[in-house]
Amino acid sequence: MKELIKRLVEVSAPSGNENKVQKVILEELDGHIDGYRFDAIGNLIVWKNGTSENPKKYLLDGHADEIGLVITNIDDKGFLRVDPVGGVNPLMLLGTIIQFVSRTTGETVRGICSFESETFADAANNQKNPTFDNLFVDIGATSRADALKDVRVGQFGTYEALYIEQNGKIISKAMDDRIACAIVIQVLKEIDTCENTVYGVFAVQEEVGIVGASVAGYDIMPDMAIAIDVTAHSDTPKGFKRMDLCLGKGPAIKIKDKASISDRCVVDHLTKTAVENDIPHQFEVLIFGGTNAHGYQMTRSGIPSGTLSVVTRYVHSPHEMIDYNDVLNSVKLLKKAVEN
Amino acid sequence: MKYLKELSEIYGASGNETEVRKFIKAKVLESKKIDYIKEDHLGNLMCLKKGKNQNKTLLLMAHMDEVGLMVSDIDEDGRLCVQAVGGVDKRVLLGKRVAVGKENIEGVIPFKAIHLQNSEATAVPSWDNIRVDIGSADRKESETKVQIGDYCHFKTVFEEYENRVIGKAFDDRAGCSVMLDILEAMDDLPYYNLVFAFVVQEENGLRGSGAVLKHFNADAALVLEGTTAGDNPELKRERWSTHLDNGPAISYLQSGYVIDRRLFTAIIDTAERLELPHQLKGRTVGSTDTTRTAKSFYGIPGAVINVPSRYIHSPVCVMSKEDYKNTVKLVKDIVMNEIFLKSLEV
C-alpha cells in the first residue's frame, strides 16, 4: 500500500483543482469498481454494487483536495503575494517550498516563502506574528514580466516536500487527506463480493468549507456515511493535554469534533466491528476541527454519519506524519464494517 | 445604469427586501422580456428568459439586501439601541443620518462633540454606546414612533460626477442594476435559458440563494457583486483587493468556495476576446452566494464578476461608471454566447 500512498501524496491538487489526483485514483481503481461519475461540482463518485436483493448503501469519503496557496498579486520585481487556500498557518510557511505548474512549459515552478523585514524590529515582529500581509513567495523571477511567463494571479500552488518512510511512519505533505483516499481505494480493491453497495466519494473542496460532501450525500442518499480523515495528535513533548490521540494505537473512532457529533449507530458499528475482529482502535474527542461527516449530516433529511480518523502529527504542515499500521488497521476495520 | 440611482436609494436591509423586490419586479414586467416570474416564500424573485437552446440553464444572481441596523432597545431618554444587520463598520456610523422604522423617520447617530473629547477621538465606538436619536423627549414618545425590531437604513442621496457615482448599497444593487440593464437591452434570445435571480439575505449569511435551486435546474451560477476596492493609498498596493477604473474584477477564490476553474477561465477568455479591461480580485476574504449554490441540493458550479466599489458596507460607496459599463458588456456577452456553460462539458 505504500506505493499507492506515495503516488497519491505526490500529486499537487489544492481545493478546486482536484482533477489531477482524481485521475490517479481512477487509474488505481481500474478493474475494481462497477462504475464511476463526476458530479456537477467535481466530486468523483465510484461504486461497487452489493449482491443482496435490496443492498444497503455505505458511503466512504476521503476528500481529494489538499490545502495550498493562491497568488493574489505579482509585484514589479516578480515577487508573489499569496492568500491561503484552506487552513494554512503563515507560521508554518517560513522557509517552505511552494510548487506551481508553469503556464507556458507545464513544468513545476518552485517558490520560497519569506517575510518582509526592513528593520531588526520588523524582522522580529514578522517572524513572531507572520501574516499574509507581510509574507511573499520568491520564484527567482527578475521582473513582473519574467514571473508572468510561469504564473499569474489566481493560480494555485501547494507545498512541495520529501516523501519519507522511517521507523514505521510515513511523512509527507497532503496526508490530509490522501491517506483517506488510499484507504478507500484499498478497501474497494480488497472487497471481493459484498452484500452491501459501497460508494467511494473523493470529494472536492473540503479544506475551504466542506463543499463537496453535502452534494454527494444528496445525490447518493446512503444508509450510512463514514468520512475518513486525519486528526490531531497529543503524543509529542508537551502535546495537547486535553486530548488522547496517539500514533500507532489504531484508527480513531470519532465521537465528536467542532463540526459534528458522530451518529451513535456509526460509532457503535465501528466499535463492535473493531472489537469482534480484534482490530486496535482508539476513541477521539477533538476539541476543534471538522470533517465531511458534517456535510453528510446536513444534507437531505440527515444521513447517519461519522468519522474514522488517522491520527496524524503536524497536520497542515509540509510534513504530516502517520503510522503505517494505523493505515492497515483502518483498511481492515472499514472492510469488515461495510461487509456487515 | 438607468436604475442605479433608484436602486441605490431604496431601503432594503437583509430580511426587509420588499421595496427592492417591488421595484425590480415592476421594471422586469415593463420590459416585457420575461417568460416566467416566480417569487418564493423567502422573498427571492426569479425571472426566466428562455434561450435559443433550452437544454441548459444559466443562473445570473445578485442579492437585493444591504447592510443596516436594527432597533434592539429604547433608552429612558428616548434614544434607540441598535445592532448590526450584516457586516457594519462601527467607525463609519457616528454622525450619520439613518431612516428609522416603517415610516422612515429621521434619525441621527449621535456622538460626543469634538470640543468635549479627549482620548475618545481615536477610539472605535462600541455597540454598547452607539445610539440612534430620533428627536423624541423620552422612551414613551419613541415608542409611539418605533418598535423593537424596526430597521434603520443609511440615508444617502445618489450622486454622479465625471466617471464616478456615489451612493449607498452598491453591494449589491450594482449587481441588480447590471441584471436589469442586460434584460432591458436584450434584443435577441440568450444562448441558453437564463434565470435572473434577485435573492434575499446574503449579507447575514447567504440565506436566500440556496432555495433558487429548488425552482430551477440550473447548470451554473454567475454571481454579480459590488465588491470591495480597498485601494486606499495608505494600504500596500500588493494587498489591494481591486482598483477603480481597472475594469470588472473576476474572483478565483472566496471564503468557503474555490471558483470553478472552467467558468473562471471562460470569463477571462471572454474579456480578452472583447478586449475589455478587467482585473483579478486581489483578496480572497468574504463570500458570495456561489458558496451556497455549490452546496445546495445537487450543487452547481459557480463564478463571480464584481464591480469594484470603494467603502462598501458604509453609507457612502464610490464606483467607476466605466467599470460598471464594462461589467455590463462582459456579462452580456457571456449570456449571449455558449462559452460559459459549454466550458463545463470538458
Strands of chain A, count = 17
CATH topology of the largest domain in chain B: Aminopeptidase
SS-derived structural category of chain B: alpha+beta
**Contiguous helical run count of chain B:** 9
Q: Hey, which two chains have the biggest interface?
A: A-B, 31 and 32 residues
Shape of chain A: globular
Described by its quaternary structure, the protein is: heterodimer
* Sheet/helix structural class of chain A: alpha+beta
Largest β-sheet summary of chain B:
11 strands, mixed
Q: What is the tally of beta strands of chain B?
A: 19
Ranges of chain B where pLDDT stays below 50 over 5 or more residues in a row are none
Tell me the strand percentage band of chain A.
Answer: 25-35%
Elements of chain A, N to C (H/E): HHEEEEEHEEHEHEEEHEHEEHEHEEH
Defining key terms:
heterodimer, A: 340 residues, alpha+beta, Aminopeptidase, Elongation Factor Tu (Ef-tu), domain 3, 2 domains, eight-stranded mixed β-sheet, six-stranded antiparallel β-sheet, globular, B: 346 residues, eleven-stranded mixed β-sheet, 9 helices
Written description of the protein model:
The complex is a heterodimer of chains A (340) and B (346). By secondary structure, chain A is an alpha+beta fold. Chain A folds into two domains: 2-66 and 173-339, Zn peptidases (Aminopeptidase, 3-Layer(aba) Sandwich); 68-160, Peptidase M42, domain 2 (Elongation Factor Tu (Ef-tu), domain 3), CATH 2.40.30.40. Helices cover 28% and strands 26% of the residues of chain A. In chain A, strands 1-2-12-3-13-16-14-15 form an eight-stranded mixed β-sheet, with helices on both faces. In chain A, strands 5-4-9-6-7-8 form a six-stranded antiparallel β-sheet. The radius of gyration of chain A is 21 Å and the shape is globular. Chain A starts with a helix and ends with a helix. The model of chain A has no long low-confidence stretch (mean pLDDT 96). Chain B has 346 residues and is α+β, with helices and mostly antiparallel strands. Chain B has two domains: 4-66 and 168-345, Aminopeptidase (3-Layer(aba) Sandwich); 68-154, Elongation Factor Tu (Ef-tu), domain 3, CATH 2.40.30.40. In chain B, the strands form three sheets. In chain B, strands 1, 2, 3, 10, 11, 12, 13, 14, 17, 18 and 19 form an eleven-stranded mixed β-sheet that branches. A six-stranded antiparallel β-sheet of chain B has the order 7-6-9-4-5-8. In chain B, helix 2 packs parallel to helix 4 (170-184).
